[in-house]
Design goal:
single chain; alpha/beta; FAD/NAD(P)-binding domain; Elongation Factor Tu (Ef-tu), domain 3; 6-stranded antiparallel beta sheet; 5-stranded parallel beta sheet; globular
């Protein structure tokens, strides 16, 4: 075929989409504006760069994130393969070496003869052909305006923040200990235990810290599950102790007791030469971050590899604009994927990129686009972001709430974990059947 499909954005969704299109024997132009045009959150020009965390969430078998990742593995996701190959210890979570993860993805994309990487900023939507828009939450202003014009209204948006990273060599190991909560997954996290007095000293410094002011035209609308830590602290003195600083499941070996509060640090790479402060996304001024976070036991002399910061996340009102196949309702050759289409989370972005790539390829080959069954994680996610009638639409992570629960199953099996294991097993069976039906369709058409 001479048709070349365009994918705009070389992040998680765009990289996955481009690779899925190329797998179908089609030529792709993958546009990525970095490093020529920077963003407030990215540090490199690598494809598939992770910016907020290096964790792709739980690998426990009775969780929705595990189900979603298993579905993506069964569909041959490039990015899930890269994640599995660059995994680092993180308890029951799938965490990756951030730099190696991006390097593997970039290498795979660049060596594929059917994918042409174009390093330039796209400032408007292509008027014809097949295009996947996967520009992420940090879409550049010109393209953001073009998308808003196409949608018929301005983009919705919220503000997101990223966590600081500290140099491992600058930490006082005598005040820290390795452990995972309840011992799950081994001793993969570094923990800073706090007494009541230490916690109150940290809390008081945090709520008094000076933050970076928003510009006059900006409104602070945060995604609830990724609140800046200082915003969360303002909800009450103990809020952090029931959130990112909860001590449950941890025992301080120096006392033999559970600490009053605890800060968890997660390895940032395989070398373990730097650590991410888990759940400490914030928008304090840099000197304030140094001052506040150095009140944490063991971090008194911490050297910061990266400070936390805030950036704007943009997304469209997908229920009004998209079909369940991620196609625009008004222009079927235009598809959206990743956080800009209203999903929240790394794996969710990969999922929509994969499905948009599959459907862009099918459209180019004259085949009908497809969507997984509603009872699968991928299908439930697409159903949520494209279900018409949602006026107050917000981005969503994958949860069992999106899948729904069979009422008969709920009555018969009271144990929630066991019930969810059954849901996972049934969803994976349904997904395998759906994949077989797609493969049969492809085989019958000679693909």
């Amino acid at each position: 075929m001479t048709l070349r499909i365009k994918v705009i954005g070389g992040g998680l969704a765009g990289s996955e989409a481009a690779w899925q299109i190329a797998r179908q024997g089609l030529d792709v132009e993958l546009y990525e504006m970095r490093p020529a045009v920077a963003t407030p959150a990215h540090a490199t020009g690598g494809l598939g760069e992770l910016v907020c965390s290096n964790s792709l969430k739980s690998e426990q078998d009775a969780t929705a994130p595990f189900l979603l990742k298993q579905e993506l593995r069964s569909m041959g996701s490039l990015l899930m393969r890269a994640a599995d190959e660059t995994r680092i210890p993180a308890g029951h979570a799938l965490a990756v070496d951030r730099a190696e993860f991006s390097r593997r993805i970039t290498e795979e994309i660049l060596k594929d003869a059917r994918i042409k990487v174009v390093r330039e900023e796209v400032r408007s939507l292509p008027e014809d052909g097949i295009t996947v828009v996967a520009t992420g939450p940090l879409t550049s202003q010109p393209l953001s305006e073009a998308i808003a014009d196409f949608a018929g209204s301005r983009n919705l948006y919220f503000y997101d923040a990223i966590s600081p990273i500290v140099d491992a060599g600058s930490l006082d190991a005598s005040k820290l200990f390795f452990a995972s909560r309840y011992g799950k997954g081994g001793e993969d996290y570094l923990n800073a235990p706090m007494s009541r007095e230490e916690y109150r000293r940290f809390y008081d410094a945090l709520v008094r810290a000076e933050t970076v002011p928003l510009r006059e035209f900006e409104e602070p609308v945060y995604f609830e599950s990724c609140l800046p830590i200082e915003e969360l602290a303002r909800r009450g003195v103990d809020t952090l102790r029931f959130g990112p600083m909860k001590p449950v499941g941890l025992t301080d070996p120096s006392t033999g007791r559970r600490p009053y509060a605890a800060v968890q640090l997660r390895r940032e790479n395989r070398m373990a030469d730097c650590y991410n402060l888990v759940g400490f996304q914030n928008h304090m001024k840099y000197p304030e971050q140094s001052r506040v976070f150095r009140t944490i036991p063991g971090l008194e002399n911490a050297e910061f590899v990266r400070f936390g910061r805030i950036h704007r996340n943009s997304y469209i009102h997908s229920p009004r604009l998209l079909r369940p196949t991620l196609q625009s309702r008004s222009r079927p050759g235009l598809l959206f994927a990743g956080q800009i289409c209203g999903v929240e989370g790394y794996v969710e972005s990969i999922a929509t990129g994969l499905l948009a790539g599959v459907n862009a390829g099918r459209l180019a080959r004259g085949k009908a686009p497809v969507a997984p069954p509603r009872s699968t994680a991928c299908g439930s996610l697409l159903n949520y972001i494209t279900f018409e009638g949602q006026e107050n639409f917000e981005p969503a992570n994958i949860t069992f709430g999106l899948l729904g629960t069979d009422e008969d199953l709920k009555r018969r099996i009271r144990d929630k974990k066991e019930r969810r294991r059954i849901q996972v097993r049934e969803a994976l069976r349904t997904m395998r059947e759906w994949i077989r039906s797609i493969e049969a369709d492809e085989a019958s058409s000679g693909f």
